[in-house]
Amino acid sequence: MPNACSLHIGLNKVDPNHYSGWNGQLYCCENDALFYSEMAEKAGITDRKLLLSSGSPNSEMPSSANLKKYLVHYQETLKSGDFLLITYSGHGGQIRDLNLDEPDEVDETWCLYDRQFVDDELWEHFSQFAKGVRILVIADSCHSESAVKVIDSQKDAEVEGLMAEIYNKMKLVQRFAPKEITFPTAQKHKEEYYAATHRPRVVKEDIPASILLMAACRDEEKACEWDGFGLFTSTLRKVLMTNKEIASYEDWHEKILQLIPKIQHPTIKAYGSGANLFLKERILQTGKTNSQFSFFDPAHHTAEPIAAENIIVDFGNSQATVKAGYEPASNIKRDEAAAAPIYLTKARDGSSPAWDSAYKEYFELKAAHPAVFVEPDIKSKYLKETPLSKSFGENSYMPGWPKPPNNLGIDEFIWHLDDQHSQLRQAAERVKKELKLSHDLDNVPDNMIRIAHIDTGYIPSHPATPKFILADAGTSFVNGEAGNKGTDLLRNRIKPLEQDGHGSATLAILAGNYIRKTDSYAGYEGFFGGIPFAKIVPIRICDTVYNAFNANDVARGIEYAVEMGCEVITMSMAGYPTRRVAQAVNKAYEAGVVMVTAAGNNWTRGISKLTPKAVMYPARFDRVIAACGVCYNEKPYDFAANEEEMKLRSEGGDTMQGNWGPERAMQTALAAYTPNLAWANNNPDHKYRFSRTGGGTSSATPQIAAAAALWILYNRQQLIDKKYRGTWKQAEAVRQALFRSGGIEYPGYKKYYGNGSLKASAALDISDEIFALALEPAEEASVSFLGIGKFVSQWFRTMPTKDGMASEVQADDERLQEMMSVEIMQVMYKDPALFDYLDTLDLDGADQDYFGRPAAMAKFKNAIKVSPYASATLKALLQ
Q1: d(Cα 679, Cα 686) in Å, to the nearest integer?
Q2: How far is CA 702 from CA 82, 543, 699, in A?
Q3: Which of 75, 329, 626, 790 shows its CA 20 to 30 Å from the CA of 804?
Q4: Buried b or exposed e, range 557-571, using 16+ CB within 10 angstroms
């Protein structure tokens, strides 16, 4: 059987001792390497090697000696028919061409940890491989095309200047080693580079092996980082995830070109004997299988296929359940004895967007079922940025953001709990005294309050796992995990990443167990969570925070929490608005459940912001507390608001900040403390079980949820006496207590925090005041309240008959208007061209008549019509 091997190189930094003091700081290259290794595994490659600059377990350093070692090993062992995959993610450099084989007199290089590896070296190794060996090289770095141009003309200078202006404006992290570093470095260490730069010329077309080079960009462009990976790798990854079939390497390259933002133009080139045939092969054919490669091969079960999204059909309570299936809805047998109103069915046309399938289903069903509503089971992606470049021995705070001073002693570990910040430690002690709980919590009653934790699950072995987690009550809504009780499986990772274990980290902030000195930093020992005596129901809705979570899974998680008797829900995730989730939020609120979800995060660097700056969903629903961020210094978790502190930030540092606004969304918002607080590290090989880099509104959310639970416990008898328990009045009483006690030390608190910063003990102090209020229910969660719905009817008139749609669309079709409103809102949250509408307009308040102006309405409608995120049906309806 043919052999298949892979080598994956990722450098987030280089040795400054070699590179004249420059460490080449990058952030996502190791992510690239780990992804490519996982991709190779799914292609059936078992012989995989990792060279990572962090020196993490299961990897070696990406040095020139290690690269040479493996290249020599492969050229000696691989034979005709064998397959080798080499991926490189790091800085691309250039040095002077001393053997005169480059027309531009410049050699391109890979910036390995100890020195630059010259292209001449790489190609000489390739020339030693046997005929018939297939070598695929994927390079996500600058200068990754076959040659590097020198700016030797006015036109080239103009292009370079224009591109530099674009990169600087977008504040992109670039994988570019400047000549000011690479040229002097090669000269300074010329003895090390002599053999590499004086090699005889290799004619690439005469190489016996077949070689394909897939490169991140053209010579005049720079490779950038985005979305947790290199932009090229991120796009390549997305193509794999969204295409069931990729016909060839040429087809793969073409699909990447269609999707990648146009500041980079990836290239593909074939060299050697039989290279043109290699170019036309189906991708990643290792010889171990005759089937076409699928990134989501069930045999490797580390991720679910991303095919056409499911659609959700709601008939109303009077209708029966329709079982899931692939047949058209009209052909599915109904169970007349059932009463549940919602069912899922696969989008029937796998080639059409999910919203087009939803509209098609609607037009087929509406005559017989006037109340029917159809929407996709939309996937939201909640990203958490982490300092993945840190080595395993480091544990420093995120630079630039406010952090606790050095003189706090052991309280440094729990600074967010102190009386100057969340007051959670003081509030918890007051509740323990009220309930007569012992210091070690060995007398917690069986009927202790339950909190639902909706996230990626938890890691039972972590020392911070709550003392009172209800393991048997846990559940998972991740597809294919029947029987999982809410544990984080870490999905067969080659190396656990910091974004894995997100659920365990947020769970620790909520109700973390007793922590020993050996597991903490700053010498802390004691209980860590805001409410360590609460009973926790773990609910897993997705694999990692880099993966998409389905709207229906969020809704089912909320409903499960209600069924399990939870009185508080915490969810450190955010996504797009859906009617299905709105229904679940209403159900929870009306049952008296306090729901706290993350407002979301946005990024200051990248091709575009990955999310809008506005509060996301479900946090934006009035019946949910939106958890925003406030820093150690009581200033907002926002770069602009911390301008003075941010002046000291190193270039290429942290780029994530918290979401807030518009004004209407902040009426039900509250801020808790982030970043730079203790974050439970999921990697048992790490020196520390906690890092100092907890951040994002993920960290803020469980603090507010803990405060809500403490208030309920402190006022349990009054809630029962007032007959609030089990009704919306309990949820609203808790919310008002937190809102009315919020800290307002920062003058702009209303803009960034809504109701101020969390002060848990102060909330207990105003309990009597809250019970004296005439409570009013919060506005019902709805997906058509953004000031859009009332204008949708003006935007469509008639449509021709097509694919089962009605020949005429009625302007008063309220269900269709609502469906269009939901899709439009989702498009606004996905399309960077429309983010300003969300970030700056208060469409429910002062700006609610914005679309009443013809010019504004026309401009917005045209933006939707040209958006790549809008369905063909919506665009047709808007004609």
Answers
A1: 13
A2: 51, 19, 7
A3: 790
A4: bbebbbebbbbbbbb
User: Which candidate, 503, 508, 466, 498, places its Cα nearest to that of 487?
Assistant: 503
Is 163 part of any domain? yes
- Asked if residue 502 and residue 361 are part of one domain, the reply reads no
Using the structure block, give the residue that is written with the tokens 């030390």.
745
* Predicted TM-score of the model (pTM): 0.69
Does 115 have pLDDT greater than 70?
A: yes
Q: Which residues of 45-59 are buried (b: 16+ CB within 10 A; e: fewer)?
A: beebbbbbbbebeeb
Domain termination site, one of 358, 377, 396: 377
Q: Phi and psi for 766 in degrees, rounded to 5? A: -105, 20
DSSP characters for 528-568? -SSSTTSEEEEEE--S-TTSEEEHHHHHHHHHHHHHTT-SE
- Written as one letter, the residue type at 464 is A
Of residues 223 and 316, the one with the higher pLDDT is: 223
pLDDT tens digits along 190-204: 667 766 655 556 665
Helix-strand-coil split of the chain, %, nearest 5: 35, 15, 50
Per the model's pLDDT, the better-predicted residue between 832 and 425 turns out to be 425
Return the sign of the alpha-carbon dihedral for residues 271, 275, 280, 282.
negative
684, 714: one domain: yes
Q: Are 150 and 200 members of one domain? A: yes
Task: Work out the burial of residue 336: count CB atoms within 10 Å of its CB; fewer than 13 is exposed, 13-18 middle, 19 or more buried.
Answer: exposed
Mean pLDDT of the 796-822 span = 63
Q: Indicate the DSSP class of residue 649.
A: P
Q: Supply the pLDDT for residue 332.
A: 31
Residue 596 has a pLDDT of 98
More confident residue, 87 or 548: 87
Does residue 561 share a domain with residue 420? Answer: yes
